[in-house]
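Hi Y.,

Following your request, here is the sequence exactly as I used it, all 140 residues.
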Amino acid sequence: MNLESLMDAREVCVVITGAHKSLALSKCLEEGVNHMWTVSAIQMHPKGLIICDEDATLELHVKTVRYFKSIEHVHQSIIGPHNLGLQGNLLRNMVDANQAAKRRRRLMLQSLLNDDDENEEENHNYFSSDEDAQKKRHKK
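Below is the corresponding structure, written out as tokens. Let me know if you'd prefer a different format.
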């Protein structure tokens, strides 16, 4: 595959497995774009994805491995692996759960507001009857 077809593609997925490809992964991720390592051009692609196994990371710096593992950990803790479709989009049940939670919050808020309105009416009735009593006293 040449560089032009790599950059013209809508999405690019590179799968790197095994210790014998660890140097290529290292050159791809940790160094700039280089004509000697065509795979490094994936750094410039807007929708580039690299999938690798543990053995392929042997030549990477420890910081690089930790960085990508931390991204994966945060991603899984926020979204969860069971809520993603094959295209990386959220599955429908996750969206439905969020909508149900929003509805519950809205109902709770409405009930709180209704309780506040009832309390205000009771207070208003209490104070207005108190004012009426004072007016009657002043007339006597």
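The longest helix spans residues 92-139.

Thanks again,
Q.
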